[in-house]
Amino acid sequence: MTSAQLLTDAFDRIREEVHSAVDGLTPKQLAYRADEAANTIAWLVWHLTRVQDDHIAGVAGTPQAWTDDGWAGRFGLPFDPSDTGYGHTVDEVASVRVESADLLTGYHDTVHARTVEYVGTLRDADLDRVVDRSWDPPVTLGVRLISVVSDDLQHAGQAAFIRGLVQRA
Fold first, then answer.
1. Residue 138 has what DSSP assignment?
2. Which residue from 49, 27, 48 is spatially nearest to 108, judged by alpha carbons?
3. What is the value of pTM for the model shown?
4. Residues facing residue 139 across a β-bridge
């Protein structure tokens, strides 16, 4: 197995988890909060997809699907188009409301397709390329990609947990 195949498998698993977490849920269920300060399924999936979109576009040198494919307009959220949700307040989390699970999975599927297209081109030696010098030590492509995988899986798992709470309510 090559690094590209391994990364593709990881991102495929994220996509599966995202679909499992949101498929069939109503807008009300996607906006459910376990308490007044908790994240919602909609926010978690939007955020993990925004981060993946931002970070993969950044290392690939391509535009983000969020703006390039019109997803920002379809979501109609009250944020700057560059916003990924990092550091959102309780009120900002609450403002991520979607009309359907299909909107979330549609955006995620678009980002997933761009992601696997990009990682499919990578060779092992590419993973050592420094992509962010603002950290000490500087961040390599391999570290950035694993960071995205880790963050996405954590948030997808959180969304799945909340789905369980919603379905028991």
1. P
2. 49
3. 0.97
4. 132
